[in-house]
Amino acid sequence: METSRYNYYDILEVSPHCQQHEVTSAYEKAKSTYSGENPAIYTIFSEEEARDLLKLVEEAYQVLGNKSLRALYDEKLGQSGFNREELSFEALKAQSKTQMPEPPKKPLGKIEFKVDEAFEKEIKEQSSWTGEFIKKVREYKNIPLERLSETTKISAYYINSIEKMDAKSLPAPVFVRGYVAQISKVLGLDEKKVCESYMKNFKDSLEK
């Protein structure tokens, strides 16, 4: 495993020349293969090994599923004398911020919705944020799932999973927190307050 730690194309079993949609398809397949819902995996790997492999799959997708990080990753692979750790998601993300700053988020544009003073008060006073309530706010503000996905650049699949708090369909919690922050910002919510409450409820749900 250590020798292929940063061979993200090998981890997802795709060609370096594959299209982006092939990366996503391979990721979904690999995630299904190494998840706990596939009992056959335990005839080959221990539960701990399967969990470690799933983490590698998530990291591989975080790099190859992002066009900017994938381009930087490919550039690193083509160079000689680089440290293997330079290919990690954290290292690539840090470097991308200095070399390729993220473009500003596409503005959502004006969307008309009927203001409900009672619900506005409920939103303001809400102390326990769940996926269900985030969805309620999104629908109240008349923002379709696809529109929110287009604006945040978060897949509709992930947004739907966040609203359902479906941990099995989501990447590592650190990425979930980032997604919730982006969604909160677009919905005009207090990012810090929503993230802290949502992640607490999210982690509590994992322990049930």
Low-confidence stretches: none
Largest sheet: none
Distance between the termini: 31 Å
Derived structural class: mainly alpha
The amount of helix comes to 55-70%
- Round the Cα radius of gyration to an integer and report it: 19 Å
Mean pLDDT: 84
Strand content: under 5%
Number of helices: 11
Order of helices and strands: HHHHHHHHHHH
The number of strands is: 0
Looking at the structure, what is the overall shape?
globular
Describe this structure in words.
By secondary structure, this protein is mainly alpha-helical. 61% of the residues lie in helices and 0% in strands. It contains eleven helices and no strands. The protein has helices spanning 8-12, 20-34, 47-64, 67-77, 89-99, 117-125, 131-140, 145-152, 156-164, 173-186, 191-206. The model has no long low-confidence stretch (mean pLDDT 84).
Topology of helices and strands:
Blueprint: H1 8-12, H2 20-34, H3 47-64, H4 67-77, H5 89-99, H6 117-125, H7 131-140, H8 145-152, H9 156-164, H10 173-186, H11 191-206
Helix pairs in contact: 2-3, 4-5, 7-9, 10-11
What is this entry, summarized?
The chain is mainly alpha-helical and 208 residues long. It contains 11 helices and no strands. The protein is globular, with a radius of gyration of 19 Å.
